[in-house]
Records
---
Amino acid sequence: MRPIQKSRKLADVCYDIRGPVLEKARQMEEDGHKIIKLNIGNLAAFGFDAPDEIVQDMIRNMGNASGYTDSKGLFAPRKAVMHYTQQKNIGGVTIDDIYLGNGASELIVMSMNALLNTGDEVLVPAPDYPLWTAAVSLSGGTPVHYVCDEQSEWMPDIEDIKKKITPNTRAIVVINPNNPTGALYSVDLLKEIVELARKHQLVVFADEIYDKVLYDGNTHTSLASLADDVLFITLNGLSKNYRSCGYRAGWMVVSGEKKHAKDYIEGLNMLASMRLCANAPGQFAIQTALGGYQSIDDLVRPGGRLLRQRDLAHKLLTDIPGVTCVKPKSALYMFPRLDPKMYPIADDQQFAYELLAEERVLIVQGTGFNCPTTDHFRVVFLPNTDDLTEAIGRIARFLDGYRRRHSIA
């Protein structure tokens, strides 16, 4: 029979966070091996539970969740999101500017589908959260990666962004707080990005899903709060700040210069209607979450579990010879660098396979985040301190053997 091939639209689409190395880990688990998974920010798997008031409110409303909602979402949670945009100093947002989705991920893809034609270019950070690159490619666009500079604490390189703007550039993606690096961008840097968007009439996509996961007293500035003459698409949700990954409750806010974006907004409305609505139970969690006690603050303050685990993971990793890591100011991840002289890695996916096979630790290789070099990998620091110590100890043991095998002193 004639082979059934996948669509050519998927040729440049990948998502290695749940990619081939994870498939190998699943096979090993089926064979009875216990794997320490440092590959994905799935908080519930590590004992970070959703706030109880969210759970209870969803249970109470389950009887009202069996029908379709408005295609953009229920009124009450959208109003709660509107109030949240006011707290973040994003001006001019109405209920109609807010779309609820099955997590921010669905809305990322939807926002790109509505915007891009074949050949359109979108500036995406490198490294990035790979769904952004995939969504651009799947929508017929061309992702163009701009450099985030590790020597400057992973800040976007403004000069590199300028060089990569062409007549085909339609938009720029800004992931702040950043996944995978944990970087948090300064207001001055954000203003420079806004100025470039203003000059070249670019749509700005602001991924702010970690805007409450902040350490050391740092604060987050929403990109859309810095201008009203640029079109902003801001994405957020409950997955990380409220440890509710499985509820798939996210939102997208259209703000700024909407007058000249009527046709694009019509496209967003069309796609929102085509999917009928986001899941209703998750929508019922949003108002309670945004208006309730912000327990994330307890986790990131001094003595909080996330802060303790960040500090431990950073120390353990940077104690390994040849490993450096910019200490994250936000989010749930480390993105350490391996000295290429000590660890000559030609294929970082193969490196991840070998670590998994030898030490039963699952990581994601740096190229899985569109990092241009093979000398990085990402780990989550969500396991408790004992498991984190064990996992990074195994990584250290593997790296010691790797150095020896490659005759590096």
---
Amino acid sequence: MRAQFVLSEIGVGLRRNLTMTFAVIVSVALSLALFGGSLLMSDQVNTMKGYWYDKVNVSIFLCNKSDAESDPNCAKGAVTEDQKSQILADLKKMSVVDTVTYESQDEAYKHYKEQFGDSPLASSLTPDQMQESYRIKLKNPEKYQVIATAFDGRDGVQSVQDQKGILDNLFELLNGMNWAARAIMALMLVVALMLIVNTVRVSAFSRRRETGIMRLVGASGFYIQAPFIAEAAVAGLIGGTLACAFLLIARYFIIDHGLALSEKLNLINFIGWDAVLAKLPLILATSLLMPALAAFFALRKYLKV
């Protein structure tokens, strides 16, 4: 097979169907940009989970005098020193516990003022209304239920709260957004495949005389099909290159510069450039193989070779 002939046929085919080729490039670029974005979103969620789950605490809030009057869990009165000592001793015996930190009412009041000092409620609170608590860091954040079972309902304990539950709601939202992006990506891929098949069909129809002559002179099926497959592959590769550019630009302007989320949201551990660069070969390979395979199967059905 002469490479020069194949390359010239690719150029002719792309110029003949310029509008449809442009549509293929745009649809492939958008669908693969969404594909890469969904992969990066999954990496980001997993990175955030690993970062935050390692920092979450289980909090055991102890009854105070106000709770003894209003909370059924504290019906037996405010926590006593003996009860606090027993709770601490039991916590230290548990194998799932890594560290235990005690927070007094004064410390709780100080932290509340630091975080919510501007709220109207802050001015009416006093330290004796705050709850003492034990903040427990677990060796495995998934073992929260062990603490809850052991201390929920015990005398002097108002409640056992797991910060992981709050994070789970956030991660469920992020995962939902990620699945929505994947659904749109799948729709765009279907559109791209339909455009590729249609473009190949139109190109094959417009060159039916040339392909007929090639069949008469004994050209092989692959020799006739190769320019059409290559056209689709080139258009897809251009789209894939644009998708890679979109991801790089988005990472640069959204996280590092422009919106600069890495500076504004210091509490979030954003994925690095290595994660983005690792996805680019997959996107380029998909952009090359997906149109080529679509063209190959379209030609088997619509081009009699």
